[in-house]
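Trying the structure run again after the queue cleared.
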Amino acid sequence: MNYLFLLLAILTEIVATTSLKLSDGFTRLVPSIVVVIGYAVSFYLLSLALRGLPLGTAYAIWSGLGTALTVVVGIILWQESISPLRIIGILTIIAGVVLLKLADSPATQTMSQ
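Done. Tokens:
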């Protein structure tokens, strides 16, 4: 359940960040409201996920995957540039998240003891 909360927190963070772009500097009402509500919901869901997940890992997954997926949204919606370096950057973020998750797995903790 904790990972479900974390996934939902990531998705609402992406919606809020996308709406931040659409708010045009908070000059458009509806996207501005979505930003505030989206971030509030995202932080609430993250707080629920933290009940059962380590802080560092949960935050790294939330911010890392949120960042990587927001880059993808920018490429799709606003035709932001895509280059080999951007792809490597996204893959590096995802690899870091995977490594953090593996570091918290019971098998890894058993090996380190």
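The chain has a mean pLDDT of 91. Worth checking whether this holds up in the mutant runs.
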